[in-house]
Each structure stands twice: as structure tokens, then as C-alpha cells.
Amino acid sequence: MTLAVRTLLDLVSIPSSSALSNRPVIEYALGCLNPAHWKIEQFSYRDDFGAEKVNLLAVANSHDPQDIELALVCHTDTVPFDAEWREGVHPQVRNGNLYGRGSCDVKGFLACILASVARIDPSSLTKGLAIVLTADEEIGCIGAKHLAQNGAWHSRYTIIGEPTDLQPVRAGKGYALAEIRVQGREAHSAFPSQGHSAIYDAARVVAALERVEKELAGRENRDFDPPYTTLNIGMIQGGRAKNIIAGECRIVVEWRPVPGEDPSYAAVLIRQEIAALEKQFPELKASLEVKRVDPPFAPTMSPTLATLLELLTSKPATTVSFGTEAAHLSPLTTETVVFGPGSMTTAHKTGEYVPVAELEQCVDYLTTIIQRICG
Known about the structure:
The protein is α/β, with parallel strands linked by helices. The chain has helices at about 5-10, 25-30, 105-120, 140-150, 200-215, 265-280, 305-315, 325-330, 355-375, and strands at about 40-45, 50-60, 70-75, 90-95, 95-100, 130-135, 155-160, 170, 175-185, 230-240, 250-255, 285-295, 320, 335-340, 355. The longest helix is centred in the middle third of the chain and has 20 residues, at about 200-215.
């Protein structure tokens, strides 16, 4: 059993969903780094429920954190898992795959980082190497935002771990989340004229959101699939009981903006549609609250790191439609590539796994990159 596999089995065995403190994962990683060769900084905070969260910055050979050549970034939290899925925190290797929560997203990449630096004598590196471990990526890239606000480091090149099938990713969509509140007036359902149904009006709003979706689809960016800002209505909640005219209905909507488009443009279109509906239907009252806007991850004009990864992997750099920490950390680096073993199609579900062969390949790639960039 290789070091990467042993390390990943240990990491998956540590429960670390975003509701928990990530301190145990950080402590495990610290146990793999010789303090004689790594300068450690920890940036801790408390989440809204009081749980301790920790971001870790480990710099080889006490290099200046503001003059790092290569940073390897990995988040330490996972999404929850079904309690009936025993392999969630009791990982198993079978049929060439390692199963368990976080094996793919994204403890597999963390295991590869720790295995690759174990192959290298940090004292032999002439340029700065940093390992950055973040908290709360799965619930809004909160740890990464803290690091960006603090200007924790600056690097020429950054690799952010995500499951990309070991294909370098040079750009990605952003993420935005909002809630529309439609206000009606409650009444006994036997006397509908005495009330005003928020659900009926919400149906009009939903139809308007479909028009917004079509407008966004007309603004294409062919680097992506789908090649435009997508919009989704993920949840609708309304009404108090079956025999009461609904006094309120809430619509949760998200969109994923492409680079080159203002991430708030969809919100502008939604507000225009709501204003038009309120003019057409005087009793309709609706408001939009934008809860989160994460910008897209735009490609670098001089893709040195992406080109190196293309040569190593024999895979062309691509784009992704899911969100990452890349856009939030862009002020701290000159070029960012998202990269890692496993496929996002197996993440966030029961039966999550990562191919063992990809773990080993990733360790080889990271070792080579460290030696070429920092050696």
C-alpha cells in the first residue's frame, strides 16, 4: 500500500463535514510536516454555530509568505453523508478504487500533497513552496475568503485541488444564490376573495424566471458547457395549510455566471421582471434578496502553469461549470489552475470514490511540478 493510499485512508476516517471543526484534519496534516523544514501559520475563526475552523499556511524553509513560487491549496471539509453508508468514515479499497466521504472531494488531493512533499527534501528547494489548507469550502468558500482578506500569502503559481480527472482547469463559472419572497394575504380558502394567493403570484414569478433564463442563454461563452450563465429554481416553499389562502411563498434561485459577465447581471434581470409584474398585477408584491455572489474564475493571459500540466498529463486545459476557491484566491496569486484526481460526477453522493491509479499519478505530477518550479 503506497503512502498516498495510507494517508487517504487515514484522512477519510476523520469526520470533517462543514458542521464540524476541521481541527483534526489540520492536526493530521501537521503530523506529516517536519517542523524543522516548514514554517507554520494558523488562521482560526469560529463559525456561526461556534465551531472552531482553521486555515493552515505551511511554508517550506521559512521563505517569505509574500514571495512564494508555488502554492498547493486544498480544502479540508466535506459534505455530509448518509449515516447508513458505513464506508463514509470507514474507507475501503476495492476494484482499484478507494471509497469514502471526501475520497474524491477533496481529501484525495490532500493525500497527494502530503505524499509528494514526503518525496522531496524541502531544504533543497531554492524557491518558495507553500501548502494552504482551507476550511468551509463546501458552504461558501468561507476559509478562502478569510485568507484573501488577510493577504495571507502571495504566489506566482497556485494549484487548487478539486476532482478534475487529472485534467488541468484554467477557468470556471461563479456561483450566486438568492431568495425571492412573494407576499400575499391569508384568508379562509372558502372565501378566496378575502385573501390574495402568494402562490398564484409566485407562479407568475417562476414564469418570469424562465424568461430570465432564456435571456442569459443568449449570451454565450463557448469555453463552457453549457456555454452561458445557467439559472435554476431549486426550492419553492409557500402556504401554511391546505385550507388557507397562501400569505407567503419563497423561491430559492441560483445562477452560475460565466467569466466576462457581471455575476450580478442575473439579479438585475430578475428585478426588472419583478417590477414589470408588479406593474401588470397591482396586488403582486415580490422582493429579491441576493444572499451570495461568488465571481467566476477567469483564465490567465500567460498560462505557464497550465501549459506545464498539459505537457505532464497529455490533457488539454479545460473549464468547469462548478464553483471553486479559485476566484476568491486570485488576488493572492498570478496564475491559478484547478486540478486533482477523481471525477466530480462521483462526489457528494453515497459511494463516492477515487481511483487509486489517479492518486499515484497525481503524486508523480505534483512531485515533478514542485521540482521544476521550486527546485
